[in-house]
Structure formats: C-alpha cells, structure tokens
C-alpha cells in the first residue's frame, strides 16, 4: 500500500478490489448477480478519497481499467449534472479499451419511444458501459449526486446487474442511516453493499502517527494525538502538522515527544483540512468557526454566534443542524460538541482577528453576566486574553493576572501568555509591575527565556517604590537564569566575576552573583562568596531567604554535611514566607543530585506537592532512582529545569542505555551533554569509565576515573565522587592490585563522610566488601540498599555481595528479577553468566534465549562488529557467529541491516526498541 492516508485501510482496499473483480460471478438463488455497487461510507476525515485512490492503483496493478469521477456540492442542484460528466468521461476512454468491448444487441442500446430524459440518459450510459466490460467506476463524494443522476444510477445498477461493470461510491456518512435513499434501496435489494471506514483503532492510529513522524511517538504524545483525533486520519495528520509548526515536537533516539503543554499552531490557509472545511457553504462555514470558540457555552452558542457575527438566528440554528448532518458536530445535552476535538482547534485557527475578538467578547460578556454556566479556567483566560482590546482593561487585566498566577506551576506555557496579556491590560503602574514579575517567573518556568528576560529587564527599570516586595530580587534572579537559558554564557560569567552588576543593591548583587556561579558549576566559590558577604544580604528578608537556600544547596554539593541536613529539614519561617513551593522544588532538585531519594520525597510530602510539579529534569532523576527507566528517558528527552541536575540526569540516561545494551547511544548521550556548559563533567566521566570497563578496556576506564576525580577536585565538588572511587576499587581488584584497591577504598570513605548521604554510605560499604570480603559488612550493605528504594542500586549490591562470596547465591536470583523490571538486557545477560558459574538456575530458559537474541539485535543496531559483540557478551567471535545464524533463522531477517531497522522502528519483538 502506498501513502500515509491508507495506513490501517489496507484490508478495506483489498476487500473493495476483490469485490469488484468478483462482480461477474454466479447469480444467486433469486437470479441476481453479486452486488455491483460498493458504498464506501464514513464520516469526515476518515480517508474515503485516499482509499478510492488506492483502490484505483491496486486495480490498475491487476490490469483493470478504472474511471474516477469526483463530485462537489455545486453540482447537486443541476439536473443530470453527474450523469452528463460520466457520459463525457466514458467517451474519452482510449480506443484500445473500447475495441475490447463486445457488441451487444437489444433494447439497452436505445431508449424506447416516448421515454423520459432520465430514461434516455440511462440508456445511453448503459450502451457506453456495456461496450466497456470490466470497467471499475469510482465516484467520490457521491452524497452530492443530483436527484436526476441518483435515479440514473439506480436504474443502471438494476439494468447492468449481470454485467462486468462495478461501481464504488464514496459517501460522507456519519452513520449508515444517513445514506441517500437511492443507495439505501439498492443495499436493501442486495444490489449494493456498504463498506464503512470507522476511526482507526489505537494501535493503527499509533502506527499512522509513527509513519507521519518518522519516529515512534512516546506514550504522552500518542495519547494526546489519539485524544485530539479520535482515530480520524485527517485529524491525526493535521494535528501533527500543527504541533510541528508550533515547535512542540522533538525527535530523539528514534522517539517523538511532545514538549511541555504547547498546543498546535493554526494551520496555514492552504492546508488540505481547511480546504475541505471551506467547501462548507455560508453561513455553515462561519458558524462552524464560531462553534469552535463558543461550544463550551452549550445552549448559548446559536444566540451568541448570531449576535457576535451579525447572523440570522434561524440560519445559525440550521447551520448547526447541517454541521451535525456532516458529522462535524454532535448534539450533547443542552448544546453541541465536536465529533473530533481537533476540528475545534483547526476551525478556531482559521478565524480572522475581528471574528476572534467579537466571539471572545460575546463569551466573556456571558460569563461576566452569569448567563453562562461554569467553564474551565483555561477557557476563561483564553477568551479574556482575546477580547481585551474591546473589553474593560482593568477588570480583564486583574482576572488574567489571577488566572495566570494560579496556573503558572501547572501549565507555565499558557500561563505565560495570559500574564503577558495581563501586563498589557493592567490598570495602573502597580498592577503592571505585579504582572511583569509574575510573567517573568512564568516565562522562566516555561523555558521562554527571551520573554522572561524582557519582563525582568522592564521590572528592573522601574523605581523601587513601584515594585511589590521582593520583586526586584526575583527579577534579577530570573534575569540571570534567563541569560543562562539563552546560552549567553559570557554575560553570566561577567555577573559571576562581578564585572556586570547583578542588582541595584548589595543584597541582590551578592545573591545574583551566587546564582551565576552555581549555574556555571562553581559551587564552592558560590558558597564561599555568599558566606563571606553574609552581612550584605542577611538583613534583607527576601535576599536572606534566597541566600540561605543557596548556601544549603551549594554546601550539599560540595560536601558540607550540615547543609545537606538543612535541605532535609523543614525550612524556617524566613524560607517558607516567600514562594514555598519554589523553594521546596529547589531543595528536592539538589537532594536528587545527591541521590537522597527518600529525603527528596519527604520534602515533597511536607510541602504537599506531587512529583508532577517538579521540573522535567528533576522528575527524570526521581524516576531513574525509583526504577522507572522509561519515564526517566522521556523526561530526559523533553524536560527543562535545574541546570544543577542536568549533568546528573545525563549520567542516568547513559546508565540506562548501557544497561539496555546500547553503549554507543550511551556515549553519544555523554558527548551531547559535554557540549553544554557546566554539566557536572565528573559524573559523565564516571559513566565513560563504566562503559569502557563494560567494553573490555580497563586502561581507558582508569583514565576516565582519573579525569573525573581531577574535574571534581578542580570544581571542589563532592557529589558523585564516591562512585568514581568505587570504580577505581573494582578496577584494582580485577587486576590484582591490593594497594590500588586500598587507596580507592580510602577515597570512597572520605567522599562518603563528606557527603553524609545514604547513597554515599552504601558506596563505601560496597568498596569495603570488594577489598576485604567481610560478610558482616556485606550484610550491612544489603540491609542499607533495601532502605534506599533504588532498584538498580539494590540489584548491584546483591550481585556484588553474592559474587564476592559474602552472601547467599540466592541473592543473584533477586538481582536478576530486579534487572528484569528495568529491562536491563545487558546487566541481565551478564548476571545469567554469573548465576551459571554459581550453579544458580536461570528461570524461564526460553525467555532467556529470546532475551539474548534481543540484546544481540540491539547491539547490532548500534553498529557493533562481531569482535565488539564478543567483547560485550564475554564470548568468542565464533560463538557470536552461531548466535547470529540462529537469530536470522528464527526471526526471518536476512541481514544486519534488517535487524537494525526492526529495532529502530520498533518492529522487533516487544521491548527491543526501548
């Protein structure tokens, strides 16, 4: 099958073509031949035209001659319009086709004397058709057949019932009962059959989306597209176009993701979907656009639309009835709703500025008067924003300010738009300053750094008396963060160096400079400068709240255990007084970097926040630590948030990819992370070391460990260094270097003592187990790992303890199950080898064989050679060749390219492409 539009319709195409080929079959018991007319029915957007086109292509491939006739609304009032067009088209068929026609004698060649015009046209068309046996006639939009041509069609089907001609009439019909009467009669008589195009089922809709995106949509995007389109192909296609135009789609690692809460952009005027909608006559087209705005107001829609756009009330109601007949709207209780949610998006995007303002003003007036019932805050804000040039500026500005502020953390993108409108509609300098402050914060949260910086600059130009309390400091902090988001690293460095003022007073300058240093990864310098300048900011309540929080964050990262405890404990009144949710989120982000999973969740619980309120980066870290690896990858690909956490998240992404047998992708993730400024290079070095060791290159692994420790020392950062020292311990033990192992152990224990975290303590215990093989220490390590709540850390602990002989070999089975829950193919493969060495049975042997093949296929998709495969799989090249042969034989793939393609497109057996 060809083209996106017939994805999921392949069986329908074959059914129609096979039915046409069998039209000349034997007669039934009543003396009738098989049905010679197929009615292809379905509501708007289900792909009837595309299916007809594919039917024509498939029939041509089978050597059958086809003739296509497309009808339009404009010809339905002209008698015999369609019949005349068909006759003209038949006479233009190539002579070679006509010469194939056997001559036929009888009354069908001429109309009887005294016959009507309809009978004469029917006789002429019958003559032309009988002269062309085997013809397949495709009529698109047959609902626009004029009345006379419908009679002709009905008579032709009866007269030519035993001929070899076959008709396929595509009809827009939301339900079968809406077929034209003539077609219903033919179906009832058995002369016609109905083939309905329903919306695409879930899996087929996802396949069409993947085809259009050239990438597999992730779960969130697939759910959004299905919700928008209801499985209607035209809506799915247009929604993807809209999201792409809005810059809301991102493709990474073969997956397509939806960024944030962005909605689709308006379709361009020439888009095929809008072109089809524009075929609606007036005032139906205008009412359809009005319904896109007013349908949430239920029964008020007809009256408000008529008043806003100067329409006749009766015509408006009749237009709505037409839209229901067309399958675009459905009646719903007291009002109407769109059969496909995206139709409302597309039609609203086609509104002109005047129409949009008038409809929004009508909606807002009805809401303010109490005439309209309750609506969502999002709907209210959107209409307020659009009617503000014609409404009451002070009232509109106040409502938009309140709605935008309330939605800022929930949906920062829309909130930023509403707050920008609130700035323009503000009543007085004070309200405008508050709106500017809130818009700057919302822009920062929505990653609209240019807008955030612009509002912050405007705030900083105002006089101190015009600003609400703390607004000047907030504006400066937003400005520094926005500069970083815009990747103006030079400006951030100037602020960090004190060369560019970071505020109008000493307090904001000190805190702003500390923020800049933290963003640059210079945590120790930020801590020392902020602590040294305490006298300049401690007396300012707003600056003191930020300063103490920054000291705690920087202290935790640089190994000042008392500061870590401050992050874990409930903040004092000076912290809670201003932006308590924001402060809680900053604390959680820092704790996640320190791998204090339970501590971060305690802070969330104390602040009564759900994890959904965290930034994408922090949600990714939490998901990684809790063993929800697919979710972690999603947030890594789409999230924005704390720069302090971005390096930690990329380290997590690389670990996930390595564990799933994708070392090349893991390295690519690390390389991409290094291209960004200040992304905790020592954490990336730790993963590079683990990858090198996995690939059988201990010398390179040791070099990466040395680089990581040097980078950490240069930045005076302690978080993550215990893991570097642990790798050094394992490398020394594997090469039989007791002195090196003891040196590594000392390094782990120093870092753990400075960190003061549960993860640091566990890392130190694992290093001691590796060096001293102490069962008592091993028991403590297992018990501590069970409290940590990190499946990967627990599985690693169990594996190390069992492999060193310090614990029961049954721990290997538990680790094996934990890795299974993470879909960690490579870790599971290596653990199977370890289990066999210790005579621990591997469960589900057939599943293990399949998993081995899936790992092999994944490594092939990475571009691994046989030698590299043998190194990763800890086997010989000859063994790899044997496994490859069995893989090709079992799956039917003929080459490495076929296997790689199946992995990348997700067609390989379940889970392979994750």
TrEMBL record:
The keyword Nucleotide-binding applies. It comes from the Bacteria. Residues 842-906 form the HTH luxR-type domain. SMART domains: HTH_LUXR (SM00421). The keyword Nucleotide-binding applies. Gene3D superfamilies: Winged helix-like DNA-binding domain superfamily/Winged helix DNA-binding domain. Keywords: ATP-binding, Nucleotide-binding. Residues 98-117 are annotated as: Disordered. This is AAA family ATPase.
């Amino acid at each position: 099958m060809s083209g996106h539009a017939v994805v999921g319709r392949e069986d329908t195409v074959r059914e129609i073509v096979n039915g046409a080929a069998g039209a000349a079959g034997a007669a039934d018991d009543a003396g009738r031949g098989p049905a010679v007319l197929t009615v292809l029915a379905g509501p708007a957007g289900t792909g009837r035209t595309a299916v007809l086109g594919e039917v024509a292509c498939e029939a041509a491939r089978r050597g059958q001659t086809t003739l296509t006739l497309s009808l339009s609304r404009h010809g339905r009032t002209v008698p015999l319009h369609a019949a005349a067009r068909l006759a003209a088209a038949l006479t233009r068929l190539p002579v070679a086709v006509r010469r194939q026609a056997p001559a036929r004698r009888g009354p069908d060649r001429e109309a009887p004397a005294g016959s009507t015009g309809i009978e004469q046209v029917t006789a002429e068309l019958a003559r032309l058709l009988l002269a062309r046996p085997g013809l397949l006639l495709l009529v698109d939009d047959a609902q626009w057949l004029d009345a006379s041509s419908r009679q002709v069609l009905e008579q032709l089907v009866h007269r030519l019932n035993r001929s070899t001609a076959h008709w396929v009439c595509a009809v827009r019909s939301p339900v079968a009962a809406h077929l034209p009467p003539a077609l219903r009669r033919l179906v009832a008589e058995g002369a016609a059959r109905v083939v309905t195009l329903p919306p695409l089922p879930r899996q087929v809709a996802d396949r069409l989306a993947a085809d259009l995106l050239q990438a597999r949509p992730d779960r969130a995007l697939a759910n959004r597209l299905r919700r928008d389109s209801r499985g209607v192909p035209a809506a799915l296609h247009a929604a993807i176009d809209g999201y792409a135009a809005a810059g809301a789609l991102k493709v990474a690692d073969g997956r397509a993701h939806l960024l944030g809460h962005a909605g689709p952009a308006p379709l361009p005027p020439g888009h095929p979907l809008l072109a089809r909608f524009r075929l609606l006559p007036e005032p139906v087209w205008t009412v359809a656009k009005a319904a896109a705005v007013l349908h949430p107001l239920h029964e008020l829609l007809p009256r408000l639309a008529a008043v806003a756009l100067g329409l006749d009330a009766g015509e408006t109601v009749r237009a709505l009835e037409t839209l229901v007949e067309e399958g675009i709207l459905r009646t719903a209780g007291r009002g109407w709703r769109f059969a496909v949610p995206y139709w409302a998006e597309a039609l609203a995007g086609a509104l002109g500025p005047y129409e949009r303002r008038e409809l929004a003003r009508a909606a807002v007036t009805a809401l303010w008067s109490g005439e309209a019932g309750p609506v969502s805050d999002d709907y209210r804000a959107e209409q307020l924003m659009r009617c503000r040039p014609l409404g009451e500026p002070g009232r509109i500005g106040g409502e938009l300010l309140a709605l935008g502020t309330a939605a800022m953390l929930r949906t920062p993108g829309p909130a930023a738009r509403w707050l920008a409108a609130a700035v323009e509609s503000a009543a007085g300098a004070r309200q405008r300053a508050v709106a500017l402050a809130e818009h700057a914060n919302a822009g920062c949260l929505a990653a609209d750094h240019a807008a955030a910086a612009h509002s912050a600059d405007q705030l900083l130009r105002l006089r101190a008396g015009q600003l609400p309390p703390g607004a000047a400091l907030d504006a400066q902090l937003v400005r520094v963060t926005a500069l970083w988001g815009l990747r103006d690293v030079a400006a951030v460095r100037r602020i960090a160096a004190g060369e560019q003022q970071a505020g109008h007073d000493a307090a904001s300058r000190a805190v702003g400079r500390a923020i800049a240093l933290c963003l640059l990864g210079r945590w120790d310098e930020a801590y020392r400068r902020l602590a040294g300048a305490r006298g300049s900011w401690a007396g300012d309540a707003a600056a003191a709240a930020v300063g103490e929080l920054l000291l705690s964050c920087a202290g935790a990262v640089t190994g000042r255990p008392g500061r870590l405890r401050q992050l874990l404990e409930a903040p004092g009144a000076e912290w809670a007084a201003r932006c308590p949710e924001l402060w809680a989120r900053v604390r959680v982000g820092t704790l996640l970097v320190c791998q204090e999973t339970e501590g971060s969740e305690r802070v969330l619980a104390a602040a009564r926040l759900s994890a959904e309120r965290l930034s994408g980066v922090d949600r990714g870290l939490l998901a990684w630590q809790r063993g929800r690896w697919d979710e972690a990858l999603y947030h890594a690909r789409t999230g924005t948030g704390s720069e302090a956490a971005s390096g930690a998240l990329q380290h997590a992404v690389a670990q996930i990819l390595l564990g799933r047998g994708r070392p090349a992708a893991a390295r690519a993730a690390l390389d991409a992370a290094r291209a960004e400024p200040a992304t905790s290079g020592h954490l990336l070095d730790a993963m590079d070391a683990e990858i090198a060791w996995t690939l059988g290159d201990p010398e390179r692994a040791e070099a990466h460990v040395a680089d990581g420790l040097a980078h950490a020392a240069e930045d005076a950062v302690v978080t993550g260094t215990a893991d570097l020292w642990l790798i050094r311990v394992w490398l020394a033990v594997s090469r039989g270097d007791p002195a090196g192992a003891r040196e590594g152990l000392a390094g782990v224990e120093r870092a753990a003592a400075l960190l003061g975290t549960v993860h640091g303590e566990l890392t130190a215990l694992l290093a001691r187990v590796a060096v001293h093989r102490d069962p008592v220490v091993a028991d403590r390590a297992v018990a501590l790992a069970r409290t940590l709540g990190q499946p990967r850390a627990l599985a690693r602990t169990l594996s190390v303890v069992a492999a060193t002989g310090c614990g029961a070999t049954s721990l290997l089975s538990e680790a094996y199950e934990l890795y299974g829950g993470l879909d960690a193919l490579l870790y599971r493969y290596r653990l199977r080898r370890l289990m066999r060495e210790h005579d621990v049975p591997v469960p589900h042997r057939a599943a293990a064989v399949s998993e081995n093949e899936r790992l092999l296929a994944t490594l092939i998709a990475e571009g691994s050679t046989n030698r590299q495969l043998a190194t990763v799989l800890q086997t010989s090249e000859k063994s790899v060749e044997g496994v490859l042969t069995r893989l090709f034989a079992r799956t039917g793939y003929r080459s490495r390219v076929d296997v790689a393609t199946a992995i990348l497109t997700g067609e390989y057996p379940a889970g392979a492409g994750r």
